[in-house]
Structure formats: structure tokens, C-alpha cells
Amino acid sequence: MAIRxxxxxxxxxxxxxxxxxxxxxxxxxxxxxAGDGLQxxxxxxxxxxxxxxxxxxxxxxxxxxxxxxITGPDRSGPAKVLVLTTFDxxxxxxxxxxxxxxxxxxxxxxxxxxxxxxxxVAAGEAMLAPSITRRLLDKYATHLPSGDEPVPDTLNxxxxxxxxxxxxxxxxxxxxxxxxxLFVSETTVKTHVGHVLTKLGLRDRVQAAVYAYESxxxxxxxx
Length: 223
Known about the structure:
Elements: E1 3-8, H1 12-23, E2 28-34, H2 37-47, E3 51-54, H3 63-71, E4 80-85, H4 93-99, E5 104-106, H5 111-122, H6 130-139, H7 160-170, H8 175-182, H9 186-200, H10 205-214
Parallel strand pairs: 1-2, 1-3, 3-4, 4-5
Helix pairs in contact: 2-3, 3-4, 7-9, 7-10, 8-9
Domain Response regulatory: 4-122
Keywords: DNA-binding, Phosphoprotein, Transcription, Transcription regulation
Domain HTH luxR-type: 151-216
């Protein structure tokens, strides 16, 4: 069955462009559009999309609050949120990830990246582009701890190897890159990542990356 996508952006021209790109793919179906967060909530309830392509800066209700309500404990459907950002302007992207977004994508990304990102998120994975993630977290380091604070007790539930994996996830490395760095198989890395998410009560790699920075395990700007 086709992946059902809801487009949320306050610029109709952008929504039209996204629709043209997505409807050219046999496995994607645009089921609706919304111009602000409030409309997005109504459309999610009515249309039950699989993925919401969410702008951040919109009137009435922004994308951060809409994401929080769509993915929160009172969620009314299976929708996952993929945040759209212009990067240089959107200082709220980290907040959107904390709110429950499954990843983010630059608005000027090539069409094939947009399509692939939707497929990845719909499959239950996180769209965590390594280079952009690192730049984003470093750019907004003022929103995050300095790294001098004591790490939370929950980290004590992780093994040393799981802590290593979490640090590498936070730096935006893929499973293949982590496997090469640690000289283990990708399957082993996937197992470690799964244990990290379960032990820390996190939903996906995006939340794991944010957790690592917020907890002080990884210092913004550190190599």
C-alpha cells in the first residue's frame, strides 16, 4: 500500500511543489494539505496519514507544538513527523526533535532525498542526516548543557560498548560507519542501538542523539 503523506506548510507554492514530486512516486500518496499547525491536527485526525511533512514556522500554531500533539501520548493515529527546515532560520528544530519528530530535512534538499526521507520515516526509522545533525546541534549548543553537569543515573544502565555506540549515534554516524569505527558488524551495531533505546526509554536515533547532548554525555562542538 502507498505511504500516506500530509503536507503542512503555510506557503501554498511549496506545498504544490512537494505534491508534484511525491505524486510522481508509485508508493507515495499525498492525502491532504494544511497551512498551519491547527489545520494539521484536524487533518491528521481525519485522514490518518503515515507521515506528516511539517514546516516549523507557521501562523496560529507552529510546527513544534503540532508535532508534540501529533506524536504525544494522546496521539490519535500512527503518523510520524518529518520536519522541514531552512536551517539558517529555524532555531526551533532541536525543540521539534524533542517534541517527537522522527527527523528533519532541508527545504532545498533534492527531490530524491525528500522521497527517500519519507520512506525511511514511514518504515519506523529516524531521518538523521549525519552532517546536518552535527552542524545543527553544534549551532544551537546554547540550548544544551555544557557537558560539565553530572550525567544522569539512567546512563549507568548502559554497558561501556552501548555508551560508545550512543556517542557515535549522537555525532550522526550511520550503522555502517559505527560498525567500521568499532570493528564490529552492522548487525551488532543494530543490536546495541536497540538496547540503548530500550534501556533509556527512547523512541529512535533522533531522540538518542538529543539525549546524549542534553545529558552532557556529548559536548556540543567536541570532536
